[in-house]
Amino acid sequence: MIYRKSIIGLIWLIIKGLLLAAVIIFVGYLVKDSQEFMGYFLAVAGIIVVIGTAAYVYSYISTYLVVTDDYVALFTQVSVFGTEQAKAEMLEIEDVLVNKSGIFRIIFDFGTLTVQTVGTKPNFTNTALARPEVAKAQIIQLSTGK
Description:
Elements: E1 2-4, H1 7-31, H2 36-61, E2 64-67, E3 71-77, E4 83-89, E5 93-99, H3 103-107, E6 110-117, E7 124-130, H4 132-144
């Protein structure tokens, strides 16, 4: 099964990015008459914020957790051109933790899922995961065989 990040987190990310860009562009518009260079500089900065937000949105929607009968894998889009993968066989999983701190995470059912592995293999974490308890229950069921 594939688990993706929460749509609420995506909407919040887009709102923050566009609001920041709007404020920067608006301030640039206000100062352009007295300081023309600063006005254009802030307009370009606002556009860069929009592009950065778009790149982060791409990274956000391209990150997902895969749970199969044999393994758990986290595919993370760390940048537009860079990806990371973390994989653990079901027998290597020691514990699965869920953190849903905050009223919005509880209401909209998203949180952080951490898969702890045995030995020196690194743990991996997926933040803003939709329905993390469902993923945790499935991983525990498959890793313990119960």
